[in-house]
Design brief:
Distance between the termini: 34 Å
Oligomer: single chain
Helix content: 25-40%
Number of strands: 12
Mean pLDDT: 89
Radius of gyration: 20 Å
Strand content: 15-25%
Largest sheet: 5 strands, mixed
């Protein structure tokens, strides 16, 4: 299956009658998305076929309505599959899984061994990790919205987003728009971005996770020079790169992320700020897209949410990838931990 994926990449290269990487970089945004999605689907299928003979594992569920033991399939069944046995409410409300009391696990990530399972919701007593997963997911989806919102003749190169820091007041994604050197979005354009975001949440799309090799990740993102530079560093420790797919959109994040886009409730894309790099920077300019959101079920009146929007419009001072040592206050130890989460 991996050979098929690589063969597809070669076919796309030849079809553009050019040499090496520049051929892939000539793909339109939509073509690059379709190609990346196809490679993701092929690799996921290959990994499932590699499982071979199905082995059973015991998953000891702890929680409401009562504790129980589920017999599931090793390397196939996910916490979301476990939630199906418990009821629709568990499926819809569970954002993360907690394994063995200490490991936070994606709801759509296959379980690999016998374990205890607790389902994590936004209203639990200690929601810090769930909130971070929520904020991290919001950033990833902001990249999806930016990719969708622009016309196909406007290249959109996603760069990266920092670790979640809820106290900053906004989730962000830094994006390269090379054909728009001095773009200042109008209120209507920000409204359009927000509308795309709301559309994603209403589709209630699952957030799928897949760990792939560095070589395959490079193949998948060969059209994006920023991701290509980042991937070797990401894969340095384990040789793997963690990808997430929402509909046909694939991006890189260490995770974990929440289960479903429908778990994002009220949301607004609030501002876009230009980031200017120093003369020594590899990337001379990026745009910092910012937004704010609440989980589904969290009720806030219009006035209170408007205060959050105004706060989220201000430039988020998370470290800038084009100039990492400027416009950043020195964080406290707690802030450093939040930024790396």
């Amino acid at each position: 299956m991996k050979q098929r994926a690589l063969s597809l990449s070669k076919t796309l290269l030849l079809s553009h009658n050019s040499k090496g990487l520049p051929a892939i970089r000539c793909l339109s945004t939509q073509e690059a998305l379709e190609r990346r999605h196809h490679l993701f689907v092929l690799e996921k299928k290959r990994q499932l076929e590699k499982v071979g003979r199905i082995e059973k594992i015991e998953v000891t569920y702890k929680g409401v309505p009562n504790d129980c033991t589920l017999i599931m399939n090793k390397d196939i069944s996910t916490p979301h599959d476990c939630a199906k046995h418990l009821g629709e409410w568990h499926m819809e409300s569970s954002a993360l899984a907690l394994l063995n009391g200490s490991i936070y696990w994606d709801m759509h990530r296959p379980l690999t061994e016998n374990c205890t399972l607790e389902l994590q919701r936004f209203n639990i007593a200690e929601p810090q990790q769930v909130n971070k997963a929520f904020w991290r997911t919001c950033s990833l989806l902001l990249g999806v919205c930016a990719t969708v919102a622009f016309k196909d003749n406007i290249p959109v190169h996603l760069h990266s987003f920092p670790g979640p820091d809820i106290r900053s007041g906004s989730f962000i994604y830094d994006i390269d728009l090379p054909s728009l050197p001095d773009w200042k979005p109008t209120p209507q354009e920000l409204h359009t971005l927000s509308a795309e975001y709301v559309k994603l949440t209403r589709q209630q799309l699952p957030v799928e996770r897949l760990d792939v090799s560095m070589d395959l990740a490079l193949e998948m993102f060969v059209d994006n020079q920023h991701k290509v530079k980042q991937i070797p560093s990401i894969a340095k420790a384990t040789g793997k790169v963690t990808l997430y797919k929402v509909d046909k959109y694939v991006d890189i994040s260490k995770g974990p992320l929440i289960s479903n886009t429908g778990q994002i409730g009220r949301v607004a894309v609030t501002s876009v700020h230009k980031l200017i790099g120093s003369p020594e920077s590899d990337v001379k300019q990026l745009y910092r897209f910012q937004g704010v959101a609440l989980p589904t079920g969290v009720i806030l009146n219009h006035f209170a949410f408007s205060i959050l929007i105004e706060r989220a419009k201000k430039l988020n001072h998370a470290r800038s990838p084009v100039n990492p040592f400027s416009n950043v206050k020195e964080p406290t130890s707690e802030e450093s931990i939040a930024a790396r989460a």
